[in-house]
Amino acid sequence: MAAEVTVTSSDVGLVSQGGARRRPRAPWLRSPKVVAGLGVAGFFILMGVFGPLIVPADPSATSAAVLQPPSLEHLLGTTATGEDVLSQVLAGARLSLVVGFTAAVVGEAIAILVGITAGYLGGLADEVLSLVTNVFLVIPVLPLQILIVTYLGDGGWLLLALVIALTTWSHGARRLRAQTLSIRQRDYVQAARAAGEPTWRTVGFEILPNVSAIVITSFVFHVTSAIVVQTGLAFLGLGNVSDWSWGSVLYWSDNSNAFLLGAWWWFVPPGLCLAFLGSGLALINLGIDEVINPRLRTGLKAARLFGRARAVGNEH
Amino acid sequence: MHFLLRRAIFYLIAAWAAITTNFILPRLMPGGPVEAVMARHEGQLSDQAVNALHIAFGLDPNASMWSEYVEYWRNLFTGNLGLSFTYFPTPVSTVIAHALPWTLVLLGVVTLVEWILGTFAGIVVGWRRGTWVDAVLPLGAFLRGIPHFWMGLVIVTVFAVTLDWFPVSGGYSSDLLPNVSVPFVGSVLYHAVLPALAMVVGSLATHMLSMRNMMVTTLSEDYVLVAEAKGLHRRRVMLSYGARNAILPNVAGFALQLGFVVSGALLVEKVFSYPGIGYVLFQAVHNQDYPLLQGILLITTFTVLIASFLADLAFFALDPRTREA
């Protein structure tokens, strides 16, 4: 099966690194990429927490100053009905982040449950769970999410987050299953089983800590994709578009043909927030990947270790 | 079991799951699907629309769930997906048949372009690891995080509205009749440039990053070191020893990305009012057109399944291990 042949970078890393020596807890916290990424993500989390409290104006308050480009009075300009764009972006950060993080937490919980169970139990249970995972991987999520959300109607942010979680857990599950399969064969797991430890203990204390890097990277990736999904659904006008989120700002700008009017300040800020948050989170993953798979490292140290000779050779 | 047979069986099961989900979803609605839709429309549905709903959901008041299910399958095989509300009384299958070719051509070209460029860029960036070229990694991560449809909004503002180089929306010039002629095909290509660009930028970055990572991992294998020690030409080491092996997981991963790519494309089409499935989907959402939404879910799933199978064929040709046993 194609899925079984695929090995992601981090899978390889853990396999080659697992050893008797105890690694320091969370070594990736020392990676500059992870620190920078955490900084960016932290900025947006603060925006989500405090954004709605520090808005310069009521995001839904219309005024006579319509479609104003950015000025001192309106730092990010105004909409076609004279609303303050900065206020909308600040107020919208909370809903976007809350949906994104909730969907990622629930989705990752499903991924851990399905992925580790499949990898650890093997046999028929693995066949069935892998099949379900692969089916979810291959069905295009957007039309499915749209259909479910349309049937459910506007059920609030929690329901939306659950729908996103239920339709996007499969990538994480696939990676966790592959990693669990390889860890299951290790001596210390065999020893724990031979010593008669109950399954929940073996899984909780021997397997789970050793897949933590994968859980973290796939959670981080999940947050980004969940926010992108929420934004896309809101952009199409699904859910309650009068609740401010980055997606609903985009929906209203598109609804008024902001791009035809050249009102770039209306739709650029929410998208940029999304892109910066996404790259901050991606940076965290890039850093973690490099820590657990040293071959992926960039920069001088890595060059000296792995690539320098070849890179220098290229120049001649 | 034979690799391709295993995959074929999987795709059949996946198709069955999608079809059955489509059958069950409306039945999970409180009070039954037709009542729920009626309530949503405050009773403002014509008898014909109610009838269309019955066909779309495969509902028959006097039948059991099982016979409804059989009937649902029979309708599927005759291409009967009910009638669209939005384009009433046009059958859903006709609406989709008109829109699908646009999406397929756009997606096909985009996928091919970004995959070839992304793979090649990944090979080069992976080969030159540890040099200044690594600076493209954060840039790639940034581009990957941008939703395709937002990229579309920015691109249309710059290249269509401000610079006026390309048309703002549509699939072809409105003063041409759709036929196979040079001006029409030219107009179609001209209109496809911006939507294609909006999708290529982000997905190219995704493929570049994954190809780069596999390339770097492969290049640290011992056999690559041996190849270099033997004094083989650098290009040969890069392509035949490095890229040849690094590309395998990338081909396998291709199928896993398809669902995302299709989802992105649907939203991009909406931005450009491109006459494909995405635009129809937007209309359907807007009009709560359940039969059309269900039809779109089925047809996009089938499209992805067929494309994944094609990727499997490529994988089968590239990886000798799949031909063993």
Overview of the molecule:
- The complex is a heterodimer of chains A (316) and B (325).
- Chain A is an all-alpha fold.
- Chain A contains 14 helices and no strands.
- With 325 residues, chain B is mainly alpha-helical.
- Chain B contains twelve helices and no strands.
- Chain B has helices at 3-24, 33-40, 47-57, 65-77, 92-127, 136-144, 148-162, 182-219, 222-229, 234-271, 277-286, 290-318.
- In chain B, helix 5 packs antiparallel against helix 10 and helix 11 (277-286) packs antiparallel against helix 12 (290-318).
- The longest helix of chain B is centred in the middle third of the chain and has 38 residues, at 182-219.
- Chain B is globular and about 80 Å long.
- At the A-B interface, helix 1, helix 5, helix 6, helix 11 and helix 13 of A face helix 1, helix 6, helix 7, helix 8 and helix 10 of B.
Count of helical regions of chain A: 14
Instruction: Report the mean per-residue pLDDT of chain A as an integer.
Output: 81
Q: Could you list the spans of chain B in which at least 5 consecutive residues all have pLDDT below 50?
A: none
Assign a percent range to the helix content of chain A: over 70%
- Under CATH, the topology of the largest domain in chain B can be stated as MetI-like fold
Principal-axes geometry of chain A comes out as elongated
Q: Tell how many strands the DSSP assignment of chain A holds.
A: 0
Spans where pLDDT lies below 50 across 5 or more residues of chain A: 1-20, 306-316
Over the alpha carbons, how many angstroms does the gyration radius of chain A reach?
23 Å
CATH class of the largest domain in chain B: Mainly Alpha
